[in-house]
TrEMBL record:
InterPro entries according to UniProt: AAA_dom (IPR025669), DNA_Partitioning_ATPase (IPR050678), P-loop_NTPase (IPR027417)
Protein's name according to its UniProt entry: ParA family protein
Domain AAA: 2-161
Length: 243
């Protein structure tokens, strides 16, 4: 089982759309997949139709009040399950601080390793205790970056932070997100890192909120759908090289 964390220091960079589309791409590769929404805004949860109230708050999994199985629910996509988020996750950072369990997320993921081949984490933004737990637990961190110098600087801060933090942290795969090739600044930024995968600024991605579905389900031939599929192929190749 591999855990792919979709994480950014900043919000509004296409993190949730990337997480949902990667989760769908994993099912196309016949991977038993779980999308675990860790963001209290619960955008992934809403996009995948899991926004009806659960019997227990999402935070209860980390408190060990309930097992993940109690909250996991199937989605309309064959092979994709969802562990939904809710507002209780706003307290997760303080909870981790009080708990003092630096590997709680890792242990919970290990408990799910027999059930899933791939777990996608949609992470909240910011450098927090939650992001530290994610970095220790993930196999790979996928970091969407808007192509601008300020966003590149934010990513550099994250890379430096994790490199200097004690213990093992997952490698980071940066992905240019919301690329608009009409903008000179975007072109200059992606030309400086030509090997980074990229996702275009596309109406198909914006339409996810109308369809409440991954792009490949309603616009399978779009450039955006091909971009997400290509990124997942690269992730699978990278995982295969490390095993």
């Amino acid at each position: 089982m591999a855990t792919i964390a979709v994480y950014s220091l900043k919000g509004g960079v296409g993190k949730t759309s990337l997480a949902v589309n990667l989760a769908h791409a994993a099912t196309i590769c016949r991977r038993r997949t779980l999308l675990w929404d860790l963001d209290p805004q619960a955008a992934s949860t809403w996009l995948l139709g899991g926004d009806s109230p659960a019997a227990d708050p999402a935070e209860a999994v980390f408190a060990r009040s309930v097992t993940p199985d109690r909250l996991i629910r199937p989605t309309a996509i064959d092979g994709l399950d969802l562990l939904p988020a809710d507002a209780s996750l706003r307290r997760l950072d303080s909870f981790f601080g009080v708990l003092g369990k630096r590997k709680r997320l890792l242990r919970l993921l290990n408990e799910l390793s027999d059930r899933y081949d791939r777990i996608i984490l949609d992470c909240p933004p910011g450098l927090t205790e939650t992001s530290e737990q994610v970095a220790r637990a993930a196999t790979l961190i996928v970091a969407p970056v808007i192509p601008s110098p300020l966003a590149r600087r934010a990513l550099d801060d994250v890379v430096t932070h994790f490199a200097n933090a004690p213990g093992r942290h997952a490698p980071i795969l940066p992905v240019f997100s919301m690329v608009d090739r009409r903008r000179a600044l975007h072109l200059a930024t992606i030309e400086a890192a030509p090997d980074w995968p990229r996702i275009p600024m596309a109406s198909a991605v914006e339409a996810m909120t109308l369809h409440r579905a991954p792009v490949a389900l309603f616009a399978p031939t779009s450039v955006a759908a091909q971009a997400f599929a290509g990124i997942w192929t690269g992730i699978e190749r990278r995982l295969a090289e490390t095993t």
